[in-house]
Amino acid sequence: METDSFSAEIAGQLYCHIVVRPLGRINHESYRGDTGNETSGFDRYTRTSTLLPHRRQAAHARSRRLRHGQREICAFEYGTAPAGSADLVIGHESLGEVIEIGAYVTRVKVGDLVVPMVRRPCPHNYCPACRSGRQDFCFTGDFTERGIKGRHGFMAQFVVDDEQYMNPVSKELRDVAVLVEPLTIAEKALIQVWDVQQRLPWSCPVTAGKAQAHCHRAIVLGAGPVGLLGAMALVKNGFDTYVYAREPAPNPKADVLAMIGAKYLSAETHSLEALASEVGNVDLVYEATGASRLAFDMIQHLGTNGIFVFTGVPGRKGPVEIDTDLMMRNLVLKNQVVFGTVNAGRDAFEASIRDLGAFVDSWPEAVRSVITGRFPMAAHRDLLLGKSGGIKNVIELN
Fold it and tell me: Which run of H or of E encompasses 156?
């Protein structure tokens, strides 16, 4: 539920808005849901929440997924509160049920499950991306993000938002739809990979029974939820997929990858040189760790005509030494491309919802195994700020 700018955002637009009831929540001690200036008729959706005793907590709809980014926000390492607020209510990955719609709403109907988009456009008329509904490519940097940058997240009894930011989800995906938003990272990356690689004859020969990337090899750096979901997307696209992470096998992450036909290699047993030697020409690297030294060391092993995708945001640490001459030579002489990707547009959300359904059809146990723990509300502090185990932990809420 938006609070600090609620009136300004929906005044004059109520007919295009919907009301979403989060199917669960993690609340926040010092957050108040009413600011005294809400638009008449919607005051009942802005009541004060029952709040938890940590200033920057997470919220979700039905169940709350916890990932590294939430820990950083809770530790005050990342995130910006809305103007005029001392607090940031987090919770940008959410699932909710539509309980009310405005007269002009056509995208969703009452009873639908929806996953909301995170980023909202900047206010500048000269930003072509935001004016085109592609705020994920905002030129000005003045965008806001629910639960992350300048806007409160989804921790409230109700959420009022414009239908254009809602993505309907099949009720068959209810138990795993919390994975839609993190999967959009890989979906957006792959959309861009296929666009960028039109620069050269990169397409594989059309072969019956094989996906479009069946002749290419990909490496995923990191076996967290973003890495595992990225591996699923790569395998679905036909890539011969390898995942490189620290923990030696056997382990639950390696088990998930075995279920989907990807290969797991540990840094404990394989150097990057050994990894590259086993893979052969590395066509694609999907970085999902936020570890800059590892990523830049890996760039040295990117293959001819290869493409490297950064998705992680490293913390502020000391500088690392890299061989810039080698990197530049490879980029030029091997026709390589490196790009970063953040946030996602509607195309990536729709692809994520579609592919998550395909993952469940193909690898139901693997998808379920990404969520390794479901916990009561009382466990929130350890999960957010402690040393919780497992791949993805979920707090289940009523």
Answer: none
Sign of CA dihedral 62, 67, 71, 77: negative
CA–CA gap between residue 94 and residue 227 (Å, rounded): 20
Cis-peptide, bond into residue 250, ω within 30° of zero: yes
Distance separating alpha carbons of residues 159 and 37, to the nearest angstrom: 16
Domain covering 181-340 in this structure, CATH number = 3.40.50.720
User: Which residues does residue 340 pair with via DSSP β-bridges, in sequence order?
Assistant: 310
pLDDT at 77: 63
149 DSSP assignment? B
Collapse the DSSP code of 135 into the 3-class scheme (helix H, G, I; strand E, B; otherwise coil) and give the result: helix
Long-range contacts of 206-212 (CB under 8 A, 24+ apart): 210/238, 211/236, 211/237, 211/238, 212/237, 212/238
- What are 294-332's pLDDT values in tens digits? 999 999 999 999 999 999 988 777 888 899 999 999 999
Residue 210 DSSP label: -
Distance CA 146, CA 118 (A): 5
Query: Domain map of the chain by residue range?
Result: 6-169+371-396, 181-340
Consecutive H or E run containing 310: strand 307-310
User: Does domain 6-169+371-396 match CATH 3.40.50.10490?
Assistant: no
Angle, CA of 169, 173 and 175, to the nearest 5°:
125
26, 152, 114, 52: CA torsion to nearest 10: 10
Burial classification of residue 398, based on how many CB atoms lie within 10 Å of its CB (0-12 exposed, 13-18 middle, 19 or more buried): exposed
